[in-house]
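Batch 3, record 17
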Amino acid sequence: MYRKQVRRRRAVLALLIVGSFALLTITYGSGSNGVQRGVSAIFSPVQSAADGALKPARDLINWFDQTFDARGRNERLQKELQEVREESIGASAALAENAQLRKLLKLDRGGAIPPGYEPVTGRVIARSPTVWFADVTIDVGSDDGVEANDPVINGDGLVGKVAAVTGGSAQVALLADHSSAVTGRVVPAGVQGVVRPNVGDPGDLILDFIDSTKRVHRGQAVVTAGWRATEIESDFPPNLPIGEVAEAPIVEQEASQQVHVRPYADLRDLDFVQVLTGGSRG
Amino acid sequence: MILTPKILVRLVAIMLLGVILQLSFFSQVTIFHVSPDLLPSLVVALGLLGGTMTGAVSGFSVGFLLNCLLVQPLGGGSLVLLCTGYLAGLFRERVEVRSPLVPPLLCFGLTVFAELGFGAVELTLATDVAVSALVVRDILVQGVFAFFGGWLIYLGLRRALRPALVDEHPVRPSRRPTVLGA
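Prediction for the assembled complex:
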């Protein structure tokens, strides 16, 4: 009797392990599937309701965390403010000149959203709990016009792109997710590279494969390059702000062809995001 | 654990509630820059109360639901959490240590194990990614959260599943002895 019970237990365990591997093999890289769409359709309203109901408690806890964090940031920001003040005079003149040129060329689009893209605003309703997967679930999906690979931004800059989509929700792979790779361009240096994550540290991205003969300096901005070949093009339109160069040691630029980038968007604290739907792919 | 239909319903409700709370609340708050991950603790508590099979099946189910709701590739979360639940159940069945510190310590250890497992799954699937040393700090902090959170989860689950637990005596209201003629 006992042996039979042990055999049955082992069989169940083996079945579960084999099942897990089979699921992983079948579903990896295939986006969302029928089961996920079904489960998501059932639970999305529950998640949205839970998200709304728990927001005050969440905000309270995050307020405490951010207050402690703000103390440390204050010193760094004071230093940065000094540097930015010095740069702002030149930047103001450049901005005025830029505005005039935009008017002249009729390029003023009145916003940072590239032409042809329709922004769809979504709220983050779930977030991956492990430190390894940097992705969030938002409450807009294919019913709202969202498609896989659509770029996702917030008020600060690029956040990531849609990895999988169901009717009422979408999974956004953040810039810090292991699957993320965005072609970026340093401005004004013009150096291009691939912005990749440093897994486990959402405040640090790596601009990899840069031209080691050109110099990149700390504080320079990194935007999407938005390349286009004959039949294929980048998922990201050009000039979406990604972040600024945080560390650019010459040794690392020459030896590893990479610099460190601090994303403008706080990838740990996302509430509302905009999915750029349509575009030239649409 | 004695599994009756009523207990099964309770188990399913506990797992659903756990996953929804994790995704909608705990994953979206940060304490010391880290979001608590209490799902491994939930699975550990179920394994400790129910044994290897309960731990493994609940781990598989929680992982499956998690992957479904996050629209992630299925199987990875299930594999890691089923191993976590199975190990917790194995501890209950093989080791005779009865100390109130066992559940929180196991939650700490097995949460660290689960996070390393998630990392192993990711690094197996990903190609050539850089990993920050901060991961180690984050995992240890998550372990500390699991120590305290897991302890509360274990106590709560023991209360919720009391009728099904083999080694728990049902609580009866104390009755005064009847004295005839009093």
